[in-house]
Amino acid sequence: MTVLSNQPTSSSVSIVSTFAETGLDERSWNALADRGTNFVFQTYQWNRSWLSAYGDQCEPLFVVVANGSSTVGVAPLVVEQTSTQGRVARFLGDGRSDYCDLLAANDWNTVAAMVRGLRDYGRWDVLDLKNVPAQSQSVEMIREICRAAGFPVIVRDHFVCPTLLIRGHEAAALKILNKPALRRRENSLERMGHLVCRDLTAASDVEPYLDRFFGQHITRWGSSSTPSLFCEASNRLFYRELTARLDRTGWLLFSVIELDEHPIAIHYGFDHQDSQFWYKPSFDPAFASKSPGLMLVRHLIRRAINQGRREFDFTVGDEPFKKRFTNFERKTVQIQVFKDPARYAFEHSKHKVISAMRRMAASLRRQL
After folding, report:
1. Do 99 and 331 form a contact (C-beta atoms < 8 A)?
2. Given its phi and psi angles, is residue 131 left (phi above 0), alpha (psi -120 to 50 degrees) or beta?
3. Treating both helix axes as pointing N-terminal to C-terminal, what angle do 137-148 and 108-121 enclose, rounded to 10 degrees?
4. 3 state SS of 256
5. β-strands 86-91, 126-133: how paired?
6. pLDDT at 159
7. Where do the structural domains in the chain lie, given as residue ranges?
8. Where do the H-state alpha helices sit in the chain?
9. Buried (b) or exposed (e) across 334-357, using 16+ Cβ within 10 A?
10. How large a percentage of the chain has pLDDT more than 90?
11. What is the CATH superfamily name and number for domain 3-159+331-367?
12. For the chain, which has fewer Cβ within 10 Å, the N-terminal or C-terminal residue?
């Protein structure tokens, strides 16, 4: 008997291409997300915004599991044709979502039904699921169920996600907040003029700042080898769509540092499910010597502490500045599922070679 045979006979699996066909409206989608690994990136608002901005670049693929008339699980995916791996299915939101997961309520049979649906659908070559929280129950479920279905699987570490734990660690959080490096930056800016920190949550308050936010980011990265994502219209559209859809949810946290009414640093982030999230910062390059970005970090840490948040999650990326202001690290993983054993063998061998080279490079750095 395989794992897939555990699925109750009362359930059905379908492959659809629109939100409407999933059988979930905004409230029921978010209620389902709330029963699993729930971040703002799994919400209806986030996924609808992503599809509005990028939907013309891919083929939506929702794997829907229903019991009678009730939808009990959705794998929100998109499929893209690639030149090297064929048809690759990824999470809807891939590339903008710092955490991704199935909407399956951590239920083994629901995940098994999703895999069965993908197996029967067949029009994919690789399932490439990135940024799945390592602590998610989906990781082990997908690994075991896919193997039982005959699909080779690779699970590898993907990103480090530094986090400042606050609740139960208040003394440590306050110590980080009052680091001399942060206090000096704030004091220096206060001596220059009237310094104001604003936290905006309503779309009507945020929208007048968006063009300034985009412009700051474009200027900041204009002379680097990695131009700003806001040079592309689709990325600006995504942020505008998201701002509108998050209105009145209380999840959007748009923070502005103003010096004499001039925005010198801006952060587009979130406050969701008792946690605060770092997402996209910008600052006026004319003030770079004053490190307004660090002032922004201090303001956000102070807010998270004052609001009694469980944590301030700096999300994916192990940039050095994050490690200075955090006391915990979580990880995400990448799960790759293959229909073709030969493609799996190639990717597995390539990964082993890359891992060996990285270990060798790390060893050499330690010896220098």
Report:
1. no
2. left
3. 50
4. strand
5. parallel
6. 95
7. 3-159+331-367, 167-309
8. 26-33, 44-54, 108-121, 137-148, 170-177, 180-192, 203-221, 233-245, 292-306, 320-324, 341-367
9. ebbbbbeeebbeebeeeeeeeeee
10. 86
11. Gcn5-related N-acetyltransferase (GNAT) (3.40.630.30)
12. C
Q: What type of residue sits at position 35? A: R
Please give the Cα distance from 63 to 91 (Å, whole number): 11
Mean pLDDT, to the nearest integer, of 79-101? 96
Whether the per-residue pLDDT at 367 is higher than 50: the answer is: yes
May I ask the CATH class of domain 167-309?
A: alpha beta
Alpha-carbon gap, residue 296 to 280, rounded angstroms: 12
Point out which residues pair with 263 in neighbouring strands.
258
Q: Identify the weakest region by mean pLDDT among 182-191, 215-224, 345-354.
A: 345-354
Helix (H, G, I), strand (E, B) or coil at 339: coil
Model-level pTM? Answer: 0.92
Q: What is the mean pLDDT of the chain?
A: 93
Distances in whole angstroms, Cα of residue 93 to Cα of each of 52, 56, 101, 323, 366: 11, 13, 10, 26, 38
- What digits encode the pLDDT tens for the residues 157-205? 999 999 999 999 999 999 999 999 899 989 999 999 999 999 999 999 9
Of 146, 90, 81, 88, the residue nearest 119 (C-alpha): 146
